[in-house]
Amino acid sequence: MTYMTKQNTVFSWLVRHKDIREKTFLKTNIRHIPRMICLHTERSNEIRGLPIVHHRKYVCDLPPNHRFPMGKFPRVLHFLLKDQVITDKQVCVPNLASEELLGCVHTKEYLDDFINGKIEEKKQKRTGFPWSEGIVRRCRYETEYPAFFRTWTHQGGTVLAAELALQRGLACSTAGGTHHAFPGFGAGFCLLNDLAVAAKHWMDNSTSRRKVLIVDLDVHQGDGTAFIFQEEPNVFTFSVHCGKNFPVRKQQSDLDVSVEDGMEDKEYLETVQTHLPWLLESFRPDLVLYDAGVDPHWEDELGRLRLTDQGMYQRDLYVIDTVVKKGIPIATVIGGGYSRNIDRLAIRHSIVHRAATKVWKQQGL
Ligand SMILES: [Zn+2]
């Protein structure tokens, strides 16, 4: 296992930004925020329980036998409802992210080309997706925002999950985690960087600049996110990934933990447990965005690690519980996961929502 940081040691980074931390740290008292209204299908409802962000247009058509398991998104919600982990009263439906919002991370030229179908074929190949209006719509919903929040009508995001987390302490999306997207191009099945847009948006939209910790436990390095925030002291990027996996050319996160092929549950959990507590204590984020990718699973077609379902559950439970117990809002996205068996994959992705539900109940949120 190797550790990499921008300044060689994380401690030097933390010392350098200590003044910023102390000025901007806000203690969040989530118990005194009133219940909020959210949208389910066409009508407004009060959310009861853990907020779950989902849109039926998270899916779009792909060519036959395409490797990306597009069908997983509605199946995640299906299994959560079927297994009575959640009720439909918990589901929040987003609107399309606006170009204005996406522009806080992505270049105008790229957004213009992407939205209007002007991405050249070579660049489309790099993303792994052929361009279509459907894929644009899907990605913009994934970077969602709800119509209810009139104050923010031009904004979007895994932003919604983050907003709900800031209001309620914890919220989960049924999509998101497209961490390979850069400001000016897409890559590795990622076209818009929802994590970066949410972090940037919620960092900027507060009087004292919120500090955001991105915990990226997808098996692939969050290279796009690391690049976007390489000079940003108020966003800390923490990535645990398999060193030999995609992308070949890694970027530098604030903390990279590169693990060897074949790592199993115990060692993986210990790796996360080694770093998360001191990161929370030292950086003191006002918001955590958690990419709970399930591609470290032993059955995953693109991962190279050997985590079990139980190992993934323990990981998600540990991360969410540790953050919530510190009183820090946390929003989760599902990240990567690859299998031709869509239902097995969807159930695997729903592990994070199951873990979040347990924390929600235990902590009395
Ligand atoms: Zn991945």
UniProtKB/TrEMBL annotation:
Q: Does the keyword Hydrolase apply?
A: yes
Q: GO molecular function of the protein, one example?
A: histone deacetylase activity
Q: In its UniProt entry, what is this protein called?
A: Histone deacetylase domain-containing protein
Q: Where is the Histone deacetylase domain?
A: 66-342
SUPFAM superfamilies cross-referenced by the UniProt entry: Arginase/deacetylase (SSF52768)
Q: Which GO terms describe its biological process?
A: epigenetic regulation of gene expression
Q: What domain of life?
A: Eukaryota
Q: Which residues form the signal peptide?
A: none
Keywords of the record: Hydrolase
Q: Does the keyword Hydrolase apply?
A: yes
